[in-house]
Amino acid sequence: MSNGPAGHVARSTVRPNSETARLTPLRTFLHTDDGVTIDSVYDPGAVVYDSFRPPAGDVVFVVAHGFTGDVDKPHVRRVAEAFVRHGAVVTFSFRGHGASGGRSTVGDREVLDLAAAVRWARGLGHARVVTVGFSMGGSVVLRHAAIYGGGGDAAGARTDAVVSVSAPARWYYRGTPRMRRLHWLVTRPEGRLVGRYGFRTRIHHREWSPVPMSPVEAVPRIAPTPLLIVHGDRDGYFPLDHPRMLAQAAGDHGELWLEPGMGHAEHAAGDALLDRIGHWAVSQGG
C-alpha cells in the first residue's frame, strides 16, 4: 500500500452518441494506474450540450464517498443530485467497494481511484474540476490535491478546488467508540468478514507500508488551490480538534465551516449545506 503517484489510464468504455440534447448519465469502469477497475457514473446535469462538449469554464464535481459507501448507496446518490444543480457530477465506488475491483486500503491507494475519476472528468471536456470528499473520501481529496497539484504528468489529474467534509486530521485515531469499532472492522479477520458481507466492502488485510502522508501533512501542499473544510460539531467519529488542525495547517488559503448540529459525513450533510457547498465551488474562479 504505497503512496506513489497514479498514472494515466482513466478511459471510459462508453462513448455518447447524442448531439444537442439533454444527456442521460453514463456508467462505465475506469482503470487506475495500478490496474484496479473503478465503477463510475457521470451525470451531465441540466445543461444542454452541443456535440457532448460542455460550455467553457463549467464545473464538474467529483464526489469521493466515505468508507463502506458506494456509487449506488442512497446517501451518495442524494449528494450527486444536490450537486447536479450546480454542474456535472462524477461519482464512483472506491476500490473494494460495491462493484469496483480490488480491496480497500482505507484511504491509502484510493488516491489512484480519485485520480482516474478526475482524468475522466477532464477527458469529457470539463475545464474546472472540484473534488468533494466525505470522511475517508475527505482525507483522500486532501492527499490527492497535495500529490497532483503540479504540472507535467500529474496535470490531467489535478483539481481546481477541494472540499473535505468530516475528514480526520491524523491516522490511527481511536478516541471515540465509533472509531474503535471501525478499527476492529479493518484490523481483525472477523471484522473484515463483517465488512465484506455486511457492507459490501472488501478490506485489504495488509497494514500500510509505508504509512501514507496524513491529511494534516497534506494540507499545506494544496495551496494555492482553494480549500474548504466542513465539519459538524456533533460528529461522532472525529471531534472538532480534527478540522481545527486541518484549518491551522491550511493557513490563509483554507476556509473552515463548523456546522452546528451536524453529525458525520454524507448522512448528516443536509440539502441546504450541500447547496452552499455547490455555490462555494462555482464561485471559485477557474
Structure description:
- The chain has 286 residues and is of the alpha/beta class.
- The chain is 31% helix and 17% strand.
- It has 9 helices and 8 strands.
- It has helices spanning 74-83, 110-123, 136-147, 177-187, 189-199, 215-218, 241-250, 265-268, 271-283; strands spanning 26-31, 37-43, 59-64, 88-92, 128-134, 161-165, 227-232, 254-259.
- An 8-stranded mixed β-sheet has the order 1-2-4-3-5-6-7-8, with helices on both faces.
- Helix 7 (241-250) links the parallel strand 7 and strand 8 (254-259).
- Helix 2 crosses helix 3 and helix 4 packs across helix 5.
- The protein is globular and about 45 Å long.
- 49% of the residues are buried.
Low-confidence stretches: 1-22, 48-57
* Tally of helical runs: 9
Helix content: 25-40%
Describe the biggest sheet?
Answer: 8 strands, mixed
What's the number of extended β-strand segments?
8
What's the overall average pLDDT, rounded? 88
User: Widest sheet: strand order?
Assistant: 1-2-4-3-5-6-7-8
Q: What's the end-to-end separation, in Å? A: 33 Å
Shape: globular
SS content category: alpha/beta
Order of helices and strands: EEEHEHEHEHHHEHEHH
- Computed Rg: 17 Å
- Beta-strand content: 15-25%
Q: What is the quaternary state of this protein?
A: single chain
